[in-house]
Write a structure and sequence with these properties.
Strand 8 and strand 9 form a beta hairpin. By secondary structure, this protein is mostly beta strands. Helices cover 4% and strands 56% of the residues. The chain has a 17-stranded mixed beta sheet that branches.
């Protein structure tokens, strides 16, 4: 039979005193509406649930007394093992989540992640401390893509987050290190922001204690990325595609500057390196250096401006940019 049961006091209070629980082939619904403080609720369904719990009425245990396994969606699998005491309402559980469809978490993600999630698998491994409801461990996402109703504008092959510290009350997440492999970013005219605000919302809503949810990515490492620029370069009809991008972003968060240091290729032609800082919605400053860039794409512009034939030439340029209270300060020097 399919039964609906309550589980640990993560999502509610117990009204009975139990020493043991044994459940097989059951279904558990977990509603995140009130507990994650989001605008829309999320009903996570654990099917084919098996739960074995013994010694719940004891204060201390020499070995694990909780064991849970269940399916989430079509491919997702969840395993939980650990210690829990009903008398003390304390425990430490080891969480192992595999192959959960990330799209099923869209109601939770939409409050802080701007694009709609199209696809992706989420995996997680770590420990959950009760009653504090704190998770510590690692999370990784595979074959991820997101965008708007017309097309994707961000995707990656794999993103591995280590040193993840998640607290639910109040909501706070800190990631020590995030490695993103083969990310691709396309421009989206609906989101003209040039900073992290293209992808993340600023989380203005508050919980019942008046506290805003917070998140911080301490260090982000990019490997073999590709990005089509949102703005034009050198001519009004040229929007460069950057590829083989690698580098770092430090302390990505809704408030405060994000420092970046990136390098790569410009469409298999030139080489670039860019360093600077950005706010949540606009770039603060940067220094850009480009080398070995064929200028044949800009023949019309150079011919009109200085009467030069650059079809066989290479160029290098140095550009600085700064956003000041009085406006933008920008300086560009080009050597042919």
């Amino acid at each position: 039979d399919q039964n609906e049961i309550g589980l640990f006091p993560i999502f509610g209070k117990w009204r009975v005193n139990l020493g043991e629980i044994h459940v097989e082939h059951s279904v558990l619904h977990i509603d995140f509406l009130n507990h994650a403080r989001r605008s829309r609720g999320l009903d996570v369904v654990l099917s084919d649930l098996s739960l074995q719990a013994v010694g719940l009425d004891k204060n201390n245990h020499n070995r694990d007394n909780i064991s849970v396994s269940a399916r989430i969606g079509k491919k997702g699998r969840l395993k939980i093992n650990g210690l829990y005491s009903l008398n003390k309402h304390e425990g430490k559980l080891q969480i192992d989540l595999k192959d959960m469809a990330l799209r099923s978490l869209q109601p939770l993600l939409s409050s802080w992640f701007a694009p709609d999630v199209f696809q992706g698998m989420i995996h997680a491994r770590g420990s959950l401390i009760l009653p504090e409801q704190n998770f510590n461990g690692m999370v990784w996402l595979e074959d991820f893509s997101a965008g708007n109703s017309e097309n994707f504008y961000v995707r990656w092959k794999e993103a591995l987050a280590s040193g993840v510290a998640l607290s639910l009350h109040p909501f706070d997440i800190v990631v020590d290190d995030l490695v993103v492999k083969q990310p691709q970013v396309l421009p989206d005219e609906r989101h003209p922001e040039k900073g992290p605000g293209r992808f993340f919302r600023s989380l203005q809503h508050k919980d019942e204690k008046g506290e805003r949810p917070t998140w911080t990515l301490e260090n982000v490492r990019i490997q073999d990325g590709r990005c089509v620029m949102t703005g034009r370069a050198l001519s009004s009809d040229y929007r460069p595609a950057l590829q083989a991008i690698s580098g770092t972003l430090s302390r990505v968060q809704p408030h405060g500057p994000v420092n970046f240091d990136l390098n790569g290729q410009i469409e298999n032609r030139g080489l670039f390196q860019i360093k600077g800082s950005t706010g949540f919605h606009e770039v603060h400053d940067y220094t850009l250096d480009v080398r070995k860039m064929p200028l044949v794409l800009f023949q019309t512009k150079f011919s009109r401006m200085i009467g030069a034939d650059v079809r066989q030439a290479q160029g290098q340029w140095h550009q600085t940019y700064e956003l000041t209270p009085k406006g933008i300060k920008q300086d560009t020097s080009i050597r042919i």
